[in-house]
Amino acid sequence: MTGHKRFDIRILIKYNPEIKGVRALKSYFYAVIIVLLLTPGAFALSWQDTLATANTRSNSIKSAEKQSEASRWSWVRSYGNFLPQFSGTASISQTYTASNAASPQMYSYGLNATQNLFTGFGNYFNLQSAFVQYESDQANLNKARSDSYYNCRLAFINLLIAQENLKLQNQILERRRQNERMIRLNYEGGKEDKGNLMQNEAYLADAEYSVSSAKRQLRLAQANLAQLLDESIDQIDQVEGDLTATVPSTPEYSSLAVGTPSYQIAKYQLEQAEIGNSSTVSGFLPDISLQGSYRKTGLNWPPDSENKSLSLNLSYNFFPGGTNLADIAVNGSKLDKARQDFAQSSKSIRYGIEEAYENLKDAVESLKVKKLYLEAAKEREKIAQVEYLNGLMNYTNWDLIESQYISAQQTLINAQRSALQNEAAWQNSYGGWVK
Predict the structure, then answer these.
(1) Is 3.60.15.10 the CATH classification of the domain at 43-83+121-285+322-429?
(2) Which residues have C-beta within 8 Å of that of residue 34, sequence separation ≥ 6?
(3) Quick check: helix, strand or coil at residue 305?
(4) What are the domain boundaries of the chain?
(5) Which of 11, 142, 245, 282 lies at a CB distance of 3.0 to 4.6 Å from 261, suitable for a disulfide?
(6) Edge-to-edge strand ranges of the sheet holding 42-45
(7) Mean pLDDT within 343-372
């Protein structure tokens, strides 16, 4: 795990003034060491730690890497069709007649070689197809990596916001407690009615529930990020900028679209269809091969009768039942479909990038507005608190301003989450990730 290990250090012994000098220092030192050893470690994770861990632990990335490796070996394997094939044989045989008379034993061994000289370009098309499949799986690996980082980023954001939300809910709870005590004193002094007191009691109960709910959401956020990284997560090690989403200058959408893994995958699918359509010519061409053998046979071992052969073979299927003609129609239709799919994918990918960028701008601008609302609500709350305590404002108006301030705090946290999520979605739209 690449996170930072934090220890909860508590001094478990009381200072004894009778123990002075070196003895007191040693006692203190030993107490600290014992607590360090006995206190379980908790991992605080930064975003850079999350990226590094996801790169080595993500199941989807590992799966895509293995698929890419298999495709690479399939591509290498396809070169074998251009190389000669060798095989060896050895045998011992004896024939029995109906009267159980046995013929002499025959021994033999030999070597056979075959070289395909021309297979109607079939080997060439197979090599092309294997290479394009390898490149497609490489693009799939890039997409899997981007998607995995995106999912981890969302989980990281949820945990980060869950931590911030718990802090806020605890602050709100303390505020509701103070307000409830204040209204209770006013009620007992005859300045407030029972309905206002009951309302603040309800506010307090709701704040206590919100703290409990925030704790549950925090545990779920920890579990979600933990299952993505296959590690136990204690908390996010927040650094400067973690709660800030940035909007880059207006990008060139078409250039970004061409570089996305999704575009590359669609392009390779089209290339596969083009290869499949071109390969139909093989059904109208002959196969040419060269074969050679060397063989020795005899009644004794090692055999001494030598036999050599060399042949040039040509095979041409004049009428394969019309399958070659059908292949032209089938692969031609597949190629037309692949062209349409590629055109649609290209447009969808470009639109997806533009949509993600505009959503990011919208979320960041909304966050700025929410911050202004919070600043205004905070200032109004300060003024209202003073006026209410001095009898210059009634309960209804004070309660409205108080509730607006608390609501503005909660709205800001949700706006921060939205901005960060849209930043991650923007990066993922073109196959990147938040660095």
Answers:
(1) no
(2) 12
(3) strand
(4) 1-40, 43-83+121-285+322-429
(5) 142
(6) 4-6, 42-45, 235-236
(7) 97
